[in-house]
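Table 4 source record.
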Amino acid sequence: MTHTATAPSLRRSLGPGRSIHVLLVASGVAGLGYQMLWVRMLSVGLGHEAIATLAVIAAFFAGLAVGAAALDAPIARSTHPARWYAALEAVIGLWALALIPLIPIANAALAQAMGPEPSEIWRWTVSFGGPVLLLAPATIAMGATLPAAARLHASLTGEGG
């Protein structure tokens, strides 16, 4: 007789702390997928994939830092870290969906703002500033997921926090 693992039995076998790890791995894989997709989409407006790659990576690092720094304290004060984590993941997913029609619009706006013969400083300002602002809601939420997940792990396992 074979036993099929159900969600509750999987959670029991993983333990409360391990299920958070699985969730974070899945979230990280999704984040990398977003990054690759956004590079491809933004390279149309920025004119080159290398510039888009640098811009998206800069947007990710900026958003991760801002999200973790800005939302760590409110998350730490909360008695519901699971709600924070779920809300942050919802923001990421909803903004990713919103970017499907927004990136083509942003590409046109970035190309127009850059102009036909921009100075190097203006090209890099537009190339970095546009994606940082455009991706900010998702990347800031991504940055806040780490403190939320850490607090959630601590509340489930009783370890620190």
